[in-house]
Amino acid sequence: MKQAWRWFGPRDLVSIDDVAQTGAEGIVTALHNVPTGAVWPPDEIARRQAEVATMRDGTPSGLVWDVVESLPVSEDIKKKKGDWRAHVEAWRKSLHHLADAGIDVICYNFMPVLDWTRTDLAWRRPNGATCMRFDLLDFAAFDLHILARSGAEQDYDDAIRDQAARRADAMSDDDKKSLAGNVVFGLPGAAERFTLDDVRQHLAEYDAISEEQLRAHFVDFLSEVVPTAEKLGLRLCCHPDDPPFPLLGLPRIMSTEEQYRAIMLAVDSPANGITLCSGSLGARPDNDLPGMMQRLGQRVHFLHLRNVRRESVAIRGSFFEDEHLSGNTDMVALIDAVLAEEARRRAEGRADWSIPFRPDHGQDILDDHGRKAQPGYPAIGRLKGLAELRGVIAALSAKRVA
Ligand code: DNO
Asked: Which residue of 86, 241, 282, 297 has the lowest C-beta tally within 10 Å?
């Protein structure tokens, strides 16, 4: 398992110098400045590689850009309209440029309109740490009373509607603004920053797109890009929906094992793979993460290891981001399944036997509270996660050898 770290580029308050001290071996990043739908130019890829490789004083960092996260897929591609053909062509060109630069793992997602979303970015835990949280009642209050989406009432039962109305009544204008900001204005890594009106307009366009139709658009997109990736020796890996259930009346197609299996079969190539994010998928009680790793492992090209604590037994429910070894996913069993998959790959002689992972998100602890890096991506909270995961990997690996 290759230990990687997400870095948001030179503006990231957690610098390459900091990352070098975490013990991470590789970097996960993107050209966040290139607009969605445009080609990633070779010189900008090379510049980012040089930034990753160099400490502030000019000495080598020892770090390499291993994984792209994300190469964004445009709304036109997801809706299969407008400039979608040109955007697919640009995506393919970017794949060529990345392959030329020696970067071969490409993460992306196919979530309509919103990338990941939360209602609270700094929810206090009893020990003083803060974490991200998705509270279904706050989300419903946003949907029903701030966005005021038409048809939203049908998506919630009476009890949720009543409680959401009470919450909305109790909110000041500032509270409403900050809730809307958390939900739609884009968390780190999201390719777009939408206003409420943009969101309303996109939602209206999705009215006519069913889950089946969105899946068909995804398969059409993959049929165009997977052959290119395969030829170039690249591994594409789709990130799951986060949270993994329908939101704002939008279809979600990458939330369950069955949905992943359908997409893997529809375009059956090793280049069509999975980013197994235990935090996103783990927010649903019917996703068995160690089992998914056992059953879909051959196509897992990248891992996000984090843990959530579900606050209800509902498929669509509230949750918060727990410590990496706490929460509802059995992280030790999941890592054991990853190591078993790596052993299988080694026995088969696969060159890609070592699967890159990053400690995904982290609670804000200690000096994180002062630094205020990107939500979910503090230095010390993630380092704590990485250190704990590294300990589990070392212990389980030693047992395998013995
Ligand atoms: C959140 C991230 C996501 C992820 C994209 C991948 O922390 O895991 O924003 O980068 O969905 O395309």
From this structure: 86
